[in-house]
Design a protein that fits this description.
The chain has about 300 residues and is an all-alpha fold. It has a single domain, classed as Tetracycline Repressor, domain 2 (Orthogonal Bundle), CATH 1.10.357.140. It contains 17 helices and no strands. The N and C termini lie far apart (about 50 Å).
Length: about 300
């Protein structure tokens, strides 16, 4: 089986999902529950913050709540995004068969599904301490604004970085009860990482986005996309290095980032900007990149003062 055979485009369904009853399958697809990569990418920054802030063994339950919250809120975000973008999605080859864009799911049902997923998120919110709850609620404004960014700015990926890294701002006070300087460097590094991987994702849609008038960092960077992605990944590593250093100022701790640096380097070196399947494969590999980073945070968090 080739690499391209392993990657299924967003708008297709195979295996178990294809055998679900029609309406239930549409709701699963609408929330991307069959595409867990987005939930992983939303979860990782929160897991990094929890791990780096202290002894992660004592926060296993908190990590579980964050995992559930990531699934629910990523699903809610996808439903909301599809509600806002249903007309644009209908004009893009990769997304025109999505449940709302294709007309398979009524708009009223999509709103009801969005409310149900948000109620699950509310259950998770109630498990957190007050500082974490306040920060989590503050995320609603940037989340609501995100779908409109591709109409306003050439860098909607930067806004996505703010949104998809927000779990770090919630995880740290949830585990530690307050905020520390290392958190802000961790959060900033996550934003740069998101810009990098979502630029890779946007490479799939450059031609359709141009026809639909949708803006993206991939279109803004053009022939310099690969260099731009490398630059954002390098910035992420430097910012994370600062976060780890603040937790334990010893040169050896920076070695914890070497596996992550190697993986991000592999993404850039092997990326083919004109091959959508190649780009999607590397985008999805960031699930493993997040795991490498959480390993670094676990080690440093457990051994820091």
């Amino acid at each position: 089986m080739t690499q391209a055979d392993d990657v299924v485009p967003d708008s297709e369904h195979r295996g178990t999902v294809s055998r679900l009853p029609g309406r239930f399958r549409d709701l699963v697809q609408l929330a991307r529950l069959d595409r867990p990569i987005g939930a992983w990418l939303l979860f990782w920054p929160g897991a990094w913050a929890i791990a780096l802030s202290g002894d992660v063994i004592h926060h296993v339950g908190l990590l579980a709540w964050f995992a559930l919250g990531a699934v629910a809120m990523r699903g809610a975000g996808c439903v909301y995004n599809d509600i806002v973008d249903r007309d644009l999605d209908a004009r893009v080859e990769r997304t025109r068969s999505r449940p709302l864009a294709s007309g398979r799911v009524p708009l009223a049902l999509a709103w009801a599904w969005l409310v149900a997923l948000c109620l699950i998120g509310l259950v998770v919110l109630l498990q957190l301490n007050r500082p974490a709850q306040i920060v989590a609620l503050a995320s609603l404004a940037p989340v609501a604004a995100y779908p409109f960014m591709k109409r306003i700015t050439w860098w909607p990926q930067a806004w996505l970085g703010i949104v998809f890294s927000w779990a770090a701002l919630v995880g740290w006070p949830a585990a530690r009860g307050g905020f520390d300087p290392a958190l802000w460097w961790l959060y900033a590094g996550s934003i740069a990482w998101v810009i990098g991987y979502d630029t890779i994702y946007a490479l799939q849609d450059i031609e359709d986005d141009a026809l639909a008038g949708v803006k993206s960092s991939a279109r803004a960077l053009g022939v310099n996309a690969k260099a731009g992605i490398a630059g954002f990944y390098l910035v992420a590593l430097l910012l994370w290095a600062r976060a780890l250093w603040l937790m334990r100022p010893e040169p050896l701790v920076l070695a914890a980032l070497l596996p992550m640096a190697g993986h991000l380097g592999w993404q850039v070196v092997t990326l083919r900007t004109d091959d959508p399947a190649n780009a999607l494969y590397r985008f999805r590999s960031n699930r493993f990149a997040g795991f490498l980073m959480v390993c670094a945070c676990v080690v440093i968090g457990a051994t820091s003062g």
